[in-house]
Amino acid sequence: MSKTKETSTNFANKKALARECPELYASQIIGGQWSLAICCYLIFGKLRFGELKKCIPNITERMLTLQLRKLEANNIITRTVYAEVPPRVEYELTQVGYELKPIIEALATWGERHKALQES
């Protein structure tokens, strides 16, 4: 993050609120469409970069790389590099990441109900 962003009032407010509100803290880690989508696919098991890219076709390679790094830095996923030619890299949820499963399932249930209400 740039120095300007880190010293902004908005950044300070978000940081302070995240310290006080565990829900906001959690949403900052998995919030955003890409991080949550990645976790949704990894719940079913390990995937390689190309497989994730196929699952989420509208994400750019750069954005996928950034999101994977963010999730890895937050101990949500692990990245395993195999000493092969060509190199093979797999991503999978950590134990902490797998704890998101009931939350993601609850979000799916809520989303389906809300969508049905909006469409009726």
Count of the separate structural domains: 1
- Note the gap between the termini: 43 Å
Shape: globular
The CATH architecture is Orthogonal Bundle
E-strand count: 3
CATH superfamily: Winged helix-like DNA-binding domain superfamily/Winged helix DNA-binding domain
The oligomeric state is: single chain
Question: What are the low-pLDDT stretches, counting only 5+ consecutive residues below 50?
Answer: none
Radius of gyration, in Å, reads 17 Å
The gist of it:
This protein has helices at 3-7, 9-20, 22-30, 33-42, 49-55, 61-73, 95-98, 101-119, and strands at 47-48, 77-82, 88-93. It is mostly helical.
What labels would you give this structure?
120 residues; mainly alpha; Arc Repressor Mutant, subunit A; three-stranded antiparallel beta sheet; 66% helix; globular
Polypeptide structure, described:
- The structure is a single chain.
- This protein is mostly helical and 120 residues long.
- The chain has one domain (31-119): Orthogonal Bundle (Arc Repressor Mutant, subunit A).
- 66% of the residues lie in helices and 12% in strands.
- The mean pLDDT is 89.
Write the layout of secondary structure elements.
Elements: H1 3-7, H2 9-20, H3 22-30, H4 33-42, E1 47-48, H5 49-55, H6 61-73, E2 77-82, E3 88-93, H7 95-98, H8 101-119
Antiparallel strand pairs: 1-3, 2-3
